[in-house]
Amino acid sequence: MSEAVNTLEGWYALHDFRSIDWTMWTNSSEEERNAALDELQSLAREWAAREENKQGSSVMFTVVGHKADIAFMHLRPTLEELDALETAFNKTRFAAYTMQNYSYVSIVELSSYISHAENPEEDPAIQARLKPALPKAKNVCFYPMNKKREGNDNWYMLSMEERRGMMRSHGMIGRGYAGRVTQIITGSVGLDDWEWGVTLFADDPVVFKKLVYEMRFDEASARFGEFGTFIVGNRLTEERFAEYFSV
Ligand code: 76R
User: Fold this and answer.
1) Which ligand 1 atom is at minimum distance from the Cα of 5?
2) Which of 41, 43, 71, 217 is the most exposed place for a label (fewest CB within 10 A)?
3) Which residues, at least 6 apart from 74, have a Cβ–Cβ distance to it below 8 Å?
4) What is the mean pLDDT of the chain?
Protein backbone atom coordinates (compact mmCIF):
# COMPACT_ATOMS: atom_id res chain seq x y z
CA MET A 1 0.00 0.00 0.00
CA SER A 2 1.25 3.50 -0.80
CA GLU A 3 1.69 5.92 2.03
CA ALA A 4 -1.18 8.43 2.41
CA VAL A 5 -0.05 12.03 2.56
CA ASN A 6 -0.68 13.83 5.81
CA THR A 7 -3.21 16.61 5.56
CA LEU A 8 -4.19 19.45 7.84
CA GLU A 9 -7.84 20.48 7.92
CA GLY A 10 -9.17 23.92 8.70
CA TRP A 11 -12.60 25.46 8.37
CA TYR A 12 -15.51 23.71 6.66
CA ALA A 13 -16.64 25.19 3.36
CA LEU A 14 -20.03 25.50 1.69
CA HIS A 15 -20.26 26.72 -1.89
CA ASP A 16 -23.92 27.56 -2.45
CA PHE A 17 -25.08 28.32 -6.02
CA ARG A 18 -28.50 29.87 -6.56
CA SER A 19 -30.54 30.92 -9.54
CA ILE A 20 -32.96 33.79 -9.09
CA ASP A 21 -36.52 33.72 -10.36
CA TRP A 22 -36.26 37.14 -12.01
CA THR A 23 -39.86 37.01 -13.26
CA MET A 24 -41.14 36.55 -9.74
CA TRP A 25 -38.68 39.20 -8.54
CA THR A 26 -39.70 41.85 -11.07
CA ASN A 27 -43.40 41.08 -10.56
CA SER A 28 -43.27 41.58 -6.81
CA SER A 29 -43.89 44.96 -5.20
CA GLU A 30 -41.10 47.34 -4.35
CA GLU A 31 -42.00 46.98 -0.70
CA GLU A 32 -41.71 43.21 -0.86
CA ARG A 33 -38.38 43.39 -2.72
CA ASN A 34 -36.96 45.85 -0.20
CA ALA A 35 -38.03 43.61 2.68
CA ALA A 36 -36.33 40.64 0.99
CA LEU A 37 -33.11 42.59 0.34
CA ASP A 38 -33.09 43.89 3.92
CA GLU A 39 -33.13 40.32 5.18
CA LEU A 40 -30.31 39.34 2.83
CA GLN A 41 -28.26 42.35 3.90
CA SER A 42 -28.81 41.71 7.57
CA LEU A 43 -27.55 38.14 7.05
CA ALA A 44 -24.57 39.55 5.16
CA ARG A 45 -23.84 41.83 8.13
CA GLU A 46 -23.97 38.81 10.43
CA TRP A 47 -21.51 36.98 8.16
CA ALA A 48 -19.20 40.02 8.14
CA ALA A 49 -19.31 40.15 11.96
CA ARG A 50 -18.29 36.46 12.08
CA GLU A 51 -15.39 37.27 9.83
CA GLU A 52 -14.35 40.20 12.07
CA ASN A 53 -14.34 37.81 15.02
CA LYS A 54 -12.28 35.23 13.11
CA GLN A 55 -15.13 32.74 13.31
CA GLY A 56 -15.48 32.24 9.58
CA SER A 57 -15.53 34.02 6.27
CA SER A 58 -18.03 34.55 3.44
CA VAL A 59 -18.07 35.97 -0.06
CA MET A 60 -21.03 36.66 -2.28
CA PHE A 61 -20.68 36.74 -6.05
CA THR A 62 -22.79 36.88 -9.18
CA VAL A 63 -22.35 34.06 -11.68
CA VAL A 64 -22.01 34.48 -15.44
CA GLY A 65 -23.86 31.90 -17.53
CA HIS A 66 -26.76 29.53 -16.89
CA LYS A 67 -25.28 27.58 -13.98
CA ALA A 68 -26.44 30.08 -11.35
CA ASP A 69 -27.16 33.77 -10.81
CA ILE A 70 -25.61 34.32 -7.41
CA ALA A 71 -23.32 32.23 -5.26
CA PHE A 72 -21.92 32.22 -1.77
CA MET A 73 -18.77 30.69 -0.41
CA HIS A 74 -18.88 30.30 3.35
CA LEU A 75 -16.24 29.03 5.77
CA ARG A 76 -17.15 28.02 9.32
CA PRO A 77 -15.38 26.14 12.14
CA THR A 78 -17.98 23.34 12.20
CA LEU A 79 -20.31 21.56 9.80
CA GLU A 80 -23.19 22.35 12.18
CA GLU A 81 -22.57 26.08 11.76
CA LEU A 82 -22.62 25.72 7.97
CA ASP A 83 -25.89 23.84 8.21
CA ALA A 84 -27.39 26.52 10.48
CA LEU A 85 -26.21 29.28 8.15
CA GLU A 86 -27.73 27.61 5.09
CA THR A 87 -31.01 27.01 6.91
CA ALA A 88 -31.16 30.61 8.15
CA PHE A 89 -30.68 31.77 4.56
CA ASN A 90 -33.40 29.40 3.32
CA LYS A 91 -35.86 30.91 5.78
CA THR A 92 -35.42 34.46 4.48
CA ARG A 93 -37.93 36.08 2.17
CA PHE A 94 -35.10 36.57 -0.27
CA ALA A 95 -34.51 32.81 -0.52
CA ALA A 96 -38.06 32.35 -1.78
CA TYR A 97 -36.88 33.97 -5.04
CA THR A 98 -33.96 31.55 -5.38
CA MET A 99 -33.39 27.92 -6.35
CA GLN A 100 -30.32 26.07 -5.13
CA ASN A 101 -28.90 24.77 -8.42
CA TYR A 102 -25.73 23.31 -6.99
CA SER A 103 -23.75 23.24 -3.79
CA TYR A 104 -20.45 21.84 -2.63
CA VAL A 105 -19.35 20.77 0.85
CA SER A 106 -15.65 20.49 1.70
CA ILE A 107 -13.00 21.51 4.21
CA VAL A 108 -9.93 23.72 3.82
CA GLU A 109 -6.98 21.39 3.30
CA LEU A 110 -3.22 21.72 3.34
CA SER A 111 -1.14 18.72 2.37
CA SER A 112 2.41 18.02 3.46
CA TYR A 113 3.91 17.05 0.09
CA ILE A 114 6.04 20.16 0.00
CA SER A 115 6.32 21.57 3.47
CA HIS A 116 5.82 19.99 6.86
CA ALA A 117 4.62 22.07 9.75
CA GLU A 118 6.39 20.96 12.94
CA ASN A 119 3.74 22.28 15.23
CA PRO A 120 0.77 23.37 13.10
CA GLU A 121 -1.43 24.36 16.06
CA GLU A 122 1.14 26.97 17.08
CA ASP A 123 2.14 28.15 13.63
CA PRO A 124 0.35 31.42 12.81
CA ALA A 125 1.09 31.19 9.06
CA ILE A 126 -0.43 27.69 8.86
CA GLN A 127 -3.42 28.71 10.98
CA ALA A 128 -4.03 31.69 8.71
CA ARG A 129 -4.14 29.35 5.70
CA LEU A 130 -6.41 26.83 7.43
CA LYS A 131 -8.81 29.54 8.65
CA PRO A 132 -8.50 32.18 5.96
CA ALA A 133 -10.38 35.39 5.40
CA LEU A 134 -11.56 34.83 1.83
CA PRO A 135 -9.88 37.24 -0.62
CA LYS A 136 -11.94 40.24 -1.66
CA ALA A 137 -10.83 39.89 -5.27
CA LYS A 138 -13.09 40.97 -8.12
CA ASN A 139 -13.49 37.51 -9.65
CA VAL A 140 -14.03 34.00 -8.35
CA CYS A 141 -13.67 30.66 -10.15
CA PHE A 142 -14.79 27.35 -8.66
CA TYR A 143 -14.54 23.76 -9.88
CA PRO A 144 -14.37 20.34 -8.28
CA MET A 145 -11.71 17.81 -9.27
CA ASN A 146 -10.37 14.30 -8.75
CA LYS A 147 -7.02 12.62 -9.17
CA LYS A 148 -7.48 9.74 -11.60
CA ARG A 149 -7.65 6.08 -10.50
CA GLU A 150 -7.52 4.20 -13.81
CA GLY A 151 -5.16 1.43 -14.90
CA ASN A 152 -1.60 2.77 -14.87
CA ASP A 153 -2.87 6.25 -14.12
CA ASN A 154 -3.79 5.66 -10.52
CA TRP A 155 -2.62 8.55 -8.36
CA TYR A 156 -3.33 6.58 -5.20
CA MET A 157 -0.98 3.75 -6.16
CA LEU A 158 2.01 6.00 -6.84
CA SER A 159 4.78 6.17 -4.27
CA MET A 160 5.01 9.17 -1.97
CA GLU A 161 8.19 10.22 -3.84
CA GLU A 162 6.48 10.18 -7.24
CA ARG A 163 3.52 12.18 -5.94
CA ARG A 164 5.77 14.63 -4.12
CA GLY A 165 7.79 15.24 -7.31
CA MET A 166 4.63 16.04 -9.25
CA MET A 167 3.22 18.26 -6.52
CA ARG A 168 6.49 20.16 -6.46
CA SER A 169 6.23 20.83 -10.17
CA HIS A 170 2.56 21.78 -9.68
CA GLY A 171 3.48 24.21 -6.91
CA MET A 172 6.20 25.81 -9.07
CA ILE A 173 3.69 26.63 -11.80
CA GLY A 174 1.30 27.98 -9.19
CA ARG A 175 4.00 30.16 -7.71
CA GLY A 176 4.46 31.83 -11.08
CA TYR A 177 1.02 33.34 -10.50
CA ALA A 178 1.81 34.72 -7.06
CA GLY A 179 0.14 38.09 -6.51
CA ARG A 180 -2.29 37.55 -9.41
CA VAL A 181 -4.33 34.63 -8.08
CA THR A 182 -5.10 33.10 -4.70
CA GLN A 183 -6.09 29.43 -4.55
CA ILE A 184 -8.04 27.84 -1.75
CA ILE A 185 -7.96 24.05 -1.90
CA THR A 186 -10.74 22.33 -0.01
CA GLY A 187 -10.75 18.57 0.42
CA SER A 188 -14.04 16.74 -0.07
CA VAL A 189 -13.27 13.00 0.07
CA GLY A 190 -16.11 11.61 2.18
CA LEU A 191 -17.95 14.96 2.07
CA ASP A 192 -19.02 15.52 -1.52
CA ASP A 193 -18.93 13.95 -4.98
CA TRP A 194 -15.40 14.94 -6.00
CA GLU A 195 -12.11 14.79 -4.12
CA TRP A 196 -11.32 18.51 -3.98
CA GLY A 197 -12.90 21.85 -4.59
CA VAL A 198 -10.63 24.42 -6.21
CA THR A 199 -11.57 28.06 -5.59
CA LEU A 200 -9.49 30.72 -7.31
CA PHE A 201 -9.67 34.46 -6.66
CA ALA A 202 -8.25 37.08 -9.01
CA ASP A 203 -8.78 40.67 -10.12
CA ASP A 204 -8.49 39.67 -13.79
CA PRO A 205 -10.47 36.60 -14.90
CA VAL A 206 -8.17 35.86 -17.83
CA VAL A 207 -5.65 34.76 -15.20
CA PHE A 208 -7.97 31.79 -14.40
CA LYS A 209 -7.69 30.66 -18.00
CA LYS A 210 -3.93 31.13 -18.17
CA LEU A 211 -3.23 29.34 -14.89
CA VAL A 212 -5.55 26.40 -15.49
CA TYR A 213 -4.28 26.07 -19.07
CA GLU A 214 -0.63 26.07 -18.04
CA MET A 215 -1.36 23.44 -15.39
CA ARG A 216 -2.97 21.18 -17.99
CA PHE A 217 0.53 20.55 -19.39
CA ASP A 218 1.91 19.59 -16.00
CA GLU A 219 1.84 15.86 -15.18
CA ALA A 220 -0.26 16.20 -12.00
CA SER A 221 -3.08 17.68 -14.09
CA ALA A 222 -2.23 16.34 -17.57
CA ARG A 223 -2.18 12.69 -16.46
CA PHE A 224 -4.19 12.69 -13.26
CA GLY A 225 -6.56 15.65 -13.22
CA GLU A 226 -10.28 15.03 -13.77
CA PHE A 227 -12.47 18.10 -13.61
CA GLY A 228 -16.10 18.84 -12.87
CA THR A 229 -18.07 21.87 -13.87
CA PHE A 230 -16.39 25.30 -13.88
CA ILE A 231 -18.27 28.27 -12.46
CA VAL A 232 -17.01 31.83 -12.77
CA GLY A 233 -18.35 35.09 -11.44
CA ASN A 234 -17.88 38.59 -10.16
CA ARG A 235 -17.85 39.53 -6.51
CA LEU A 236 -21.11 41.16 -5.44
CA THR A 237 -19.77 44.19 -3.61
CA GLU A 238 -21.81 46.68 -1.56
CA GLU A 239 -21.49 49.07 -4.51
CA ARG A 240 -22.94 46.59 -7.02
CA PHE A 241 -25.71 45.36 -4.74
CA ALA A 242 -28.49 47.91 -5.42
CA GLU A 243 -27.85 47.95 -9.17
CA TYR A 244 -27.82 44.15 -9.45
CA PHE A 245 -31.24 43.78 -7.83
CA SER A 246 -32.80 46.92 -9.30
CA VAL A 247 -35.94 46.49 -11.37
O1 76R B 1 1.79 24.20 0.00
C2 76R B 1 1.26 24.81 -0.96
O3 76R B 1 0.09 25.22 -0.97
C4 76R B 1 2.08 25.01 -2.18
C5 76R B 1 2.14 23.81 -3.02
C6 76R B 1 0.75 23.35 -3.48
C7 76R B 1 0.06 22.19 -3.09
C8 76R B 1 0.48 21.13 -2.07
C9 76R B 1 -0.06 24.03 -4.45
C10 76R B 1 0.26 25.24 -5.04
N11 76R B 1 -1.20 23.29 -4.67
C12 76R B 1 -1.16 22.17 -3.86
C13 76R B 1 -2.12 21.16 -3.77
MN14 76R B 1 -2.60 23.62 -6.11
N15 76R B 1 -4.00 23.99 -7.51
C16 76R B 1 -4.91 23.08 -7.98
C17 76R B 1 -5.54 23.63 -9.14
O18 76R B 1 -6.70 23.12 -12.74
C19 76R B 1 -5.85 22.30 -12.35
O20 76R B 1 -5.08 21.73 -13.17
C21 76R B 1 -5.74 21.96 -10.91
C22 76R B 1 -6.53 22.89 -10.01
C23 76R B 1 -5.05 24.91 -9.32
C24 76R B 1 -5.42 25.90 -10.41
C25 76R B 1 -4.06 25.12 -8.30
C26 76R B 1 -3.32 26.29 -8.14
N27 76R B 1 -3.51 21.87 -5.66
C28 76R B 1 -3.19 21.03 -4.62
C29 76R B 1 -4.13 19.93 -4.60
C30 76R B 1 -4.14 18.77 -3.61
C31 76R B 1 -3.43 17.64 -4.30
C32 76R B 1 -3.18 16.42 -3.48
O33 76R B 1 -3.14 16.50 -2.25
O34 76R B 1 -3.02 15.35 -4.12
C35 76R B 1 -5.00 20.12 -5.66
C36 76R B 1 -6.18 19.26 -6.07
C37 76R B 1 -4.59 21.33 -6.32
C38 76R B 1 -5.19 21.83 -7.45
N39 76R B 1 -1.65 25.40 -6.56
C40 76R B 1 -0.54 25.94 -5.92
C41 76R B 1 -2.21 26.41 -7.32
C42 76R B 1 -1.43 27.62 -7.15
C43 76R B 1 -1.75 28.95 -7.83
C44 76R B 1 -0.41 27.31 -6.28
C45 76R B 1 0.69 28.25 -5.78
C46 76R B 1 0.18 28.80 -4.47
C47 76R B 1 1.18 29.68 -3.82
O48 76R B 1 2.38 29.35 -3.84
O49 76R B 1 0.74 30.69 -3.26
Assistant:
1) 33
2) 217
3) 13, 14, 16, 47, 56, 57, 58, 82, 85
4) 97
Residue of 140, 198, 216 with the most ligand 1 atoms within 8 Å of its CB, for mutation? 198
Tell me the CA–centroid distance for residue 246 and ligand 1, in Å: 39
Q: Which residues contact 99 (CB under 8 A, 6 or more apart)?
A: 18, 19, 21
Atom of ligand 1 nearest to the CA of 109: 30
Cα–Cα dist 91/81, whole Å: 15
> Active site residue: 143, 156, 177, 213, which one?
143
Return the residue whose CA atom lies nearest to atom 1 of ligand 1: 114
Q: Measure 162 CA to ligand 1 centroid, in angstroms.
A: 16
Taking a C-beta distance cutoff of 8 angstroms, is the pair 16, 74 a contact? yes
Q: Is 156 a catalytic residue?
A: no
Asked if 196 contacts 187 with a C-beta cutoff of 8 angstroms, the reply is yes
Residue 147 CB less than 6 A away from ligand 1: yes
Domains for the chain: give ranges and CATH numbers.
Answer: 7-245 (3.30.70.1030)
CA 74 to CA 168: how far, in whole Å? 29
pLDDT in tens, 96-152: 999 999 999 999 999 999 888 889 999 999 999 999 999 999 999 999 999 999 999
